[in-house]
């Protein structure tokens, strides 16, 4: 009998799940992707600025996996026919904005945590005497603490504030003192269970990486992430339902009953399995009756709101010879990071074209600082960027603001255990995927969706 599977959520995790389901299930399996907004892609969105394609969400993904192979995102791009469309950024250094000057990010750190304190070159002054071998590992097996708690206790506050905070903030928009070590830096958490010093743990974690010398760290899709979304939707051969939210999922024997659309005029659908690939709170609402323990485990996850400011500056606008920079929270700016987009991605434009700069605004706990009009946010970003690069910038010829309200999950210590408990409490035929559970970044989200598809496929085979 032909099976029907619902994937709730049309971001990259949901689409990766749909593609994997298409590969694993019989050809006549019906896969339905429900996306309550009017477009697929979630936080992958390609926009236009001064005639150029510029990302309004994630601009790239990791090229390699920790085992030395291709990342899940690269493998996925090949699977959906875009292997030949992958491009890599130019080899440009990045910097930290500290005290009104730009300083190169020290080489050899692990998300800002150094394994060799001599490489910091004055960017931060560590407390070298604190990282003593006490005769036992830094962490007990399975223990989870905040990144900042571990680094602060071993290297002092300045390393956290000037290096780790901006590096983590660039990815999660969060603070090191509130982010889980196991969720954000799993390799370091693993080596901290055996190493007696933080320096030793960082070096051991770095040694686990098998990235080949010269291998690009990042990759993107020529033409924009929108191409990846479109190719995934095509490869999944799924029925796409846009603008119709799923309001309830109800167990009905061996099947699932879905209630869709507005309450006054509900629609229904029945499927054999469900994959939830939505943020934590919507997922918890949908799980409240079907899997209350799972809902409780993930429902309190907090999110940070951020905004992106895209600006097209006149051709020839002088900028530092960098791919961009990160800003420590202590600098007090609304801008937390900036990418010199056309320098980082030279395939975008030829000589004489506009200079595209993209700034990221806002951090966890600073939502009120984003409560301005788009024009006001652009003015703040433009002024702060000029101050951070050391000179007033010319007016932008074109610009936009992209807001991502509640866009980035904040993984508090203990997050991996809560996720494991949520999955363990799920009834058969229901799976979870996405950034709310397994981490931000396109490769992690792709792998999360594929894992959910594997679980559902195995369940359906055993029916």
TrEMBL record:
Its main location: cytoplasm. Its EC number is 1.3.3.15. Residues 12-456 form the Amine oxidase domain. It comes from the Bacteria. Pfam families: Amino_oxidase. Keywords: Cytoplasm, FAD, Flavoprotein, Heme biosynthesis, Oxidoreductase. SUPFAM superfamilies: FAD-linked reductases, C-terminal domain (SSF54373), FAD/NAD(P)-binding domain (SSF51905). It catalyses: coproporphyrinogen III + 3 O2 = coproporphyrin III + 3 H2O2. It is found in: Cytoplasm. InterPro entries: Amino_oxidase, FAD/NAD-bd_sf, Protoporphyrinogen_oxidase, Zeta_carotene_desat/Oxidored. Its cofactor is FAD. Pathway: Porphyrin-containing compound metabolism; protoheme biosynthesis. It is an enzyme of class 1 (oxidoreductase). NCBIfam families: proto_IX_ox. Involved in coproporphyrin-dependent heme b biosynthesis. Catalyzes the oxidation of coproporphyrinogen III to coproporphyrin III. Belongs to the protoporphyrinogen/coproporphyrinogen oxidase family. Coproporphyrinogen III oxidase subfamily. This is Coproporphyrinogen III oxidase. It comes from Actinoplanes palleronii. The lineage of its organism: Bacteria, Bacillati, Actinomycetota, Actinomycetes, Micromonosporales. The gene is hemY.
